[in-house]
């Protein structure tokens, strides 16, 4: 059953450089750091998230807001814009032309385990179809050990289409990954 704290209006806005202190705090939280394993100095956050925030690279970093308050981040990219990443995934599963990928986190620890991740993923996949009429599918690799993440993907309607070794974000993890996919619904579906 969903917790009342996970209810409310879900909205989105593009990550801005003014959000970097918040993002940095999220990346430092143990439940995020475990899977993202990201350098959290102000310089590193600026270096790694600045180009997308300024529109200098094709990926999109979007804040998820619950009743107007940021609680999570979704990164989205067209796989064709990142040929090395596409090649890594294509070695494991069929990746259709027009495929996108996402990565995500819930930064607020009090909102994890409440069904909000599933809501966020479901809504963002729908948003991908709306924002990118040429998007054919969303393909998401997730480290096999991150059960909460791949369960949220399953609950959001993505299906496991393969498994194989990919470089993990955190070097303590085994390279085993599950790959999930959802295809654009047929017109009218």
Automatic annotation (TrEMBL):
Protein name, as recorded: Lysine N-acyltransferase MbtK
Domain of life: Bacteria
Pfam families from the UniProt entry: Acetyltransf_8
Involved pathway(s): Siderophore biosynthesis; mycobactin biosynthesis
Main function: Acyltransferase required for the direct transfer of medium- to long-chain fatty acyl moieties from a carrier protein (MbtL) on to the epsilon-amino group of lysine residue in the mycobactin core.
Keywords: Antibiotic resistance
Residue ranges of every copy of the N-acetyltransferase domain listed in the record: 10-185
InterPro entries: Acyl_CoA_acyltransferase, Acyltransferase_MbtK/IucB-like, GNAT_dom
């Amino acid at each position: 059953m969903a917790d009342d704290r996970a209810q409310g209006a879900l909205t989105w806005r593009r990550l801005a450089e003014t959000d970097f202190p918040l993002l940095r705090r999220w990346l430092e939280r143990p439940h995020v750091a475990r899977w993202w394993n990201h350098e959290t100095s102000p310089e590193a956050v600026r270096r790694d998230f600045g180009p997308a925030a300024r529109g200098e690279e094709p990926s999109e970093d979007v804040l998820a807001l619950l009743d107007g308050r940021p609680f999570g981040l979704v990164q989205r990219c067209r796989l064709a814009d990142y040929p090395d990443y596409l090649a890594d995934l294509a070695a494991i599963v069929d990746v259709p032309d027009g495929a996108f990928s996402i990565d995500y986190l819930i930064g607020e620890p009090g909102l994890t385990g409440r069904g909000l991740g599933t809501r966020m993923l479901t809504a963002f996949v729908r948003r991908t179809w709306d924002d990118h009429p040429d998007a054919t599918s969303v393909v998401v690799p997730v480290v096999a050990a991150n059960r909460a993440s791949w369960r949220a993907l399953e609950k959001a309607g993505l299906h496991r289409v393969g498994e194989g070794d990919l470089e993990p974000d955190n070097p303590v993890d085994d390279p085993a990954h599950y790959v999930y996919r959802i295809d654009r619904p047929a017109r009218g579906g």
